From TrEMBL, chain A:
Location of the region described as Disordered in the Swiss-Prot/TrEMBL record: 444-495
Source species, domain of life: Bacteria
UniProt xrefs under InterPro entries: 4Fe4S_Fe-S-bd, 4Fe4S_Fe_S_CS, FTHF_cligase-like_sf, Helical_ferredxn, LUD_dom, LutB/LldF, LutB_C, NagB/RpiA_transferase-like
Ranges for domain LUD: 73-302
Cited Gene3D superfamilies: Alpha-helical ferredoxin (1.10.1060.10), NagB/RpiA/CoA transferase-like (3.40.50.10420)
Keywords: 4Fe-4S, Electron transport, Iron, Iron-sulfur, Metal-binding, Repeat, Transport
Listed PANTHER family: LACTATE UTILIZATION PROTEIN B
One Pfam family named in its UniProt record: LutB_C
NCBIfam families (UniProt xref): LutB/LldF family L-lactate oxidation iron-sulfur protein
Residue ranges of domain Lactate utilization protein B C-terminal in the record: 396-487
Domain (4Fe-4S ferredoxin-type) ranges: 318-387
Protein name listed in UniProt: (4Fe-4S)-binding protein
UniProtKB/TrEMBL annotation, chain B:
Ranges in coiled-coil conformation: none
Source organism: Streptomyces regalis
Pfam families in UniProt: CCG (PF02754)
Protein name stated in the entry: Fe-S oxidoreductase
Gene Ontology annotations for the cellular component aspect, listed alphabetically: cytosol
Automatic annotation (TrEMBL), chain C:
Alphabetized Pfam families for the sequence: LUD_dom (PF02589)
LUD domain residues: 49-212
UniProt cross-references to Gene3D superfamilies, sorted A to Z: NagB/RpiA/CoA transferase-like
Highest classification ranks of the organism: Bacteria, Bacillati, Actinomycetota, Actinomycetes, Kitasatosporales
Protein name (Swiss-Prot/TrEMBL): Lactate utilization protein B/C
Length: 495, 251, 213
């Protein structure tokens, strides 16, 4: 398994393997079902959940509607508090900025807090190319990094691994990166956590540069917020001398008070806790007398497709996302296809609407993602910022089959309809033609009924997609409308 | 009350028994049912596959055919949700595309008076005991568009609980999608089939003979999986259970 | 063009699809959610704090101000702590009964030195009953963030009832965003193995909270 998502096949092909991998299916089923029940309980504890959800949605929508203003305000606040703000239009630029900042410290290694933004831009690989080693310190990220694997979940990137697999990875790989796994390491979660503690401790204590993302940035105060569980975040945010935070521009909230909404909805939605073990909040740097935490703070504001997403009035709601991963955990498709099939650091329902917007729908995988859903709506139901994921999925399907105007890297371009949908498009048009004419529909129904004895139970060719696993329904001897007319709506008796 | 039956293209073509059951049931409850012959398809498959513009003429056609009725009743949660949830959205999108209010205005009349069958029974007719008799062990699958789109809640279960002779078994993982999802069943057939197989295994674990739901599209997928897996279970539309009486039982 | 101008320009073009709503922010977002959940007496709020702290595996002690020094001494002794980190402004009285050696946190002390200390004792800024959370704001009786992070045993003293609030919204009202803040809900934990919660990773694996008052 490679460590990148480049050249991923379309979703159905990638999912095909996952569906038949019994270990993976078992791991995902166990993990997602465990968290589903817990989330429901944690949410039910809060009687005003619907109001919190609505407020969260409105805060995010308002912020996005005035994003330029809040970005400038945030920049002023962070700068006034002693931080330095950088702007990165894309991944290449963000990686360049971070690499240069690290080099300026003279260091060749950094410790990292789990961050979706740095995953998205491939920061670790970019730093590696510059001779800088980045150590992932979140337990799941560590498992992924040691296993030369790819993340498969937003919150728990190693969700596809069970405890036995994790033990094997630790035993085999830890010594390559530093302190080896303890002798006789078993697969109990407590022992695995202890092994990670020992392995990473030395790295934390000597680290001079920390790299993070942020869950929230408060425009009025310049405060950054990182929500975490293990304490690796606190280590990276407080022990190094230099801290570099790479954050997507949509992570802004206008006011300090806004945190009261998200600090209630995020933990309950993600880890199903009343509150996660640790939340760190910092505003620039402290005065040199207190010297609490890094004395050099850099904030890298990342676009990388976010403004293109913002330009789509239906699709922009995806930018409300607070990365809780509740939608992944309830998604029946994610549960069976696994995270890797989505070909992005953002898997699951949110990934299926985010990746094709951040990256465009031109690649095979991105054009297939909007279809990676049965539109069951479970994701929308649990989303703490009420992103109507099914609505955006359908909207993106439209973009794939019809093409049309989109924004790419800040420019308005006209997209051609995607290839490979010609037969479907013709079928849809033919169906529309027939359905616009009841007589034509009736003729088709009668033809189907008259030839019913000739219909096979299984279909060849593309029809196998249905009949490979499911029997076809038998066609009745007459359609309902013929019965209705023949019997005068049943009033004339007769079946 | 004069009510139009919006049977849906799938039921009309493949499941006429469901249509006859709705007519029988509503007639028994004193409702005058009409089947407008001009009806075809609500456009859901087009819309959900990304062909919104192809769905628009179908939606206009729907409005032409059904606009004059007091109430429109459909034995399909997903087609009901199409009219109620997505027709207004189609109108909004047309407006956003600079095409004015015409589509929204054309579709508006049918939106509030379209009811899914169980909703119509419980909310409009105010009945939960429809006088049905069905001596079988049954489990109920709440389909996604009925559950989360229309918010049918416990209406179907209340109707089933009042059926004489019927033993209702709880379906584990009831709220989970069966994996049909329209063209999803074809485009992502592996995942769809895996979801269907899990749904069927959960249904089997109840010991019920029959799985019922308020949507034949989902039942086509679940039933097709049941026979392929040789479970011995059957899938039946809830209308056929509610129409069944001691005098004229549905098997 | 700088990337700053480029990004701000893209944002403005992206939002060009309709009139901007200039409703003041206070009115743009109706806050129909609750300031706290349920009604409780002061004593019940403190009980809820104790209950929720314990639910996430913090060890909770309750004592009077007069017993505090002895309580802390007992906890350190039970732990076998030979050394204890002391923030600069901690009430000297609190550690008057312990035999453990007091280590002052100095700006020049390295993380490695902190790692050699057995325990740390701090006060807190506020505690949140509904979530079982204590918040440290770096005041002199709480010290720099690192001192409650590197040692494996953290004793945190909460003055009840005056430092206890019911809810997250009430806690934020009391806090100063310009200070470095750490919200702590139980000892460090992870859900990264099969989405099951396990306590004890990088932060202090033992969190003891003393409710004094």
């Amino acid at each position: 398994m490679s460590g990148t998502f480049v050249g991923m096949p379309a979703f159905p092909k990638a999912a095909h393997e996952a569906v038949h991998d019994q270990t993976l299916r078992g791991n995902l089923r166990h993990a997602t079902h465990t968290i589903r029940a817990k989330r429901a309980k944690a949410v039910a504890e809060v009687s005003d959940w619907a109001a919190l959800r609505e407020a969260g949605k409105l805060i995010k929508d308002h912020t996005l509607r005035h994003l330029d203003r809040y970005l400038v305000q945030l920049e002023e606040s962070v700068t006034a508090a002693g931080g330095t703000v950088h702007w990165a239009a894309d991944a290449v630029e963000a990686n360049r900025i971070v690499a240069d900042l690290v080099k300026a410290t003279g260091e060749s290694e950094v410790v990292k807090v789990k961050s979706m933004a740095t995953q998205e831009i491939g920061l670790n690989e970019a730093l590696e190319a510059e001779g800088i080693r980045a150590y992932e310190t979140d337990l799941a990220e560590l498992i992924v990094q040691l296993g030369k694997d790819r993340p498969s979940h937003i919150l728990v990137p190693a969700i596809h691994r069970n405890r036995g697999e994790i033990r094997d990875i630790f035993r085999k790989e830890m010594s390559e990166w530093g302190r080896p796994a303890p002798e006789g390491l078993t697969d109990t979660p407590a022992e695995l956590a202890e092994a990670a503690r020992l392995h990473l401790r030395e790295k934390f204590l000597r680290a001079k540069v920390g790299i993070s993302g942020a869950n929230f940035m408060v425009a009025e105060t310049g405060t950054m917020v990182v929500v975490e569980s293990e304490g690796n975040g606190r280590m990276c945010l407080t022990l190094p001398e230099t801290l570099i935070s790479v954050v997507g521009i949509e992570k802004i909230v206008p006011t300090w008070q806004d945190l009261e909404v998200f600090l209630q909805t995020l933990p309950r939605s993600s880890t199903a806790e009343r509150m996660n073990p640790y939340t760190s909040m910092w505003t620039g740097t402290t005065d040199s007398e207190t010297a609490d935490g890094p004395q050099n703070f850099h904030l890298v504001l990342l676009d990388n497709g976010r403004t293109d997403t913002l330009a789509d009035e239906v699709g922009r709601q995806a930018l409300r996302c607070i990365r809780c991963s509740a939608c992944l955990n309830v998604c029946p498709v994610y549960e069976r296809a696994g995270g890797h099939a989505y070909g992005s650091v953002y898997p699951g329902p949110i990934g299926a609407i985010l990746s094709p917007q951040l990256r465009g729908v031109t690649s095979e995988i991105d054009a297939s993602l909007p279809y990676a859903s049965s539109l069951c709506g479970a994701c929308y139901e649990v989303c703490p910022v009420a992103i109507d994921i099914p609505e955006v999925l359908v909207h993106l399907r439209e973009r794939v089959v019809e093409g049309g105007q989109v924004t790419a890297q800040g420019n308005k371009v006209v997209l051609k309809p995607a290839k490979g949908h010609a037969a479907e498009r013709a079928a849809m048009r033919a169906a529309r033609w027939a359905f616009s004419r009841p007589g034509a529909l009736r003729a088709g129904q009668r033809l189907a009924s008259r030839t019913r004895r000739l219909h096979p139970r299984s279909l060849p060719g593309p029809g196998k997609a249905w009949s490979g696993t499911r029997d076809l329904p038998t066609v009745p001897k007459e359609p309902f409308r013929d019965w209705w007319q023949r019997t005068n709506g049943g009033k004339d008796g007769g079946k | 009350m004069r009510v139009a039956l919006f049977l849906t293209c799938v039921n009309d073509t493949l499941y006429p028994d469901t249509g006859r059951a709705v007519v029988k049931l509503l007639t028994r409850l004193g409702v005058e049912v009409d089947f407008p012959m001009g009806q075809t398809c609500c456009g859901q498959a087009h819309y959900n596959t990304g062909y919104r513009h192809e769905a628009e003429p179908l939606a206009r056609h729907f409005s032409d055919v059904f606009g004059e009725y007091e109430a429109i009743v459909t034995p399909s949660g997903s087609c009901g949700a199409m009219v109620r949830e997505l027709y207004p959205r189609m109108g909004e999108r047309a407006r956003a595309e600079g095409r004015g209010d015409t589509l929204a205005a054309t579709l508006a009349p049918v939106v509030p008076k379209t009811y899914e069958l169980t909703e119509f029974l419980v909310d409009v007719l105010g009945v939960t005991d429809v006088g049905a008799y069905y001596p079988h062990k049954v489990t109920y699958h709440p389909t996604c568009h009925g559950l989360r789109g229309l918010g049918l809640g416990d209406r179907p279960r209340r109707l089933l609980q009042a059926v004489k002779g019927l033993e209702l078994a709880e379906l584990p993982g009831a709220d989970e999608c069966c994996g049909f999802g329209g063209t999803f069943a074809l485009k992502n057939s592996d995942v769809s089939a895996a979801m269907g197989a899990d749904k069927v295994r959960n249904a089997e674990s109840t010991g019920a003979e029959v799985l019922c739901a308020a949507d034949n599209s989902c039942l086509m997928h679940i039933g097709g999986t049941m026979t392929r897996l040789r479970t011995g279970m059957r899938s039946v539309h809830i209308a056929e259970i509610l129409a069944s009486t001691e005098e004229e039982p549905t098997v | 063009m700088s990337s700053r101008e480029r990004i701000l320009g893209r944002v403005r073009r992206a939002l060009g699809d309709g009139p901007r709503d200039d409703t003041p922010y206070e009115q743009a977002v109706p806050r129909d959610y609750l300031r706290e959940h349920g009604t409780r007496s002061v004593a019940e709020t403190v009980d809820l704090l104790a209950e929720n702290l314990a639910d996430y595996r913090a060890i909770v002690h309750r004592c009077t101000a007069a017993d505090l020094a002895a309580t802390i001494a007992g906890m350190l002794a039970a732990r076998g702590a030979k050394t204890v980190l002391v923030p600069p402004g901690l009430e000297p009285e609190w550690l008057s009964a312990t035999a453990a050696e007091r280590i002052a946190d100095r700006p020049e002390s390295t993380p490695h030195e902190l790692d050699g200390v057995d325990s740390v004792v701090t006060a807190c800024a506020v505690a949140v009953a509904e979530t079982g959370t204590i918040v440290l704001d770096g005041s002199a009786d709480q010290g720099r963030r690192r001192i409650t992070l590197v040692p494996d045993h953290h004793i945190c003293v909460v003055r009840v009832p005056e430092q206890v609030v019911s809810s997250v919204p009430q806690a934020l009202e009391r806090l100063d965003p310009t200070r470095p803040l750490t919200w702590i809900s139980g000892p460090s934990a992870t859900s990264d193995i099969e989405l099951d919660r396990v306590e004890g990773v990088h932060g202090p694996r033992t969190l003891e909270v003393v409710l004094v008052g």
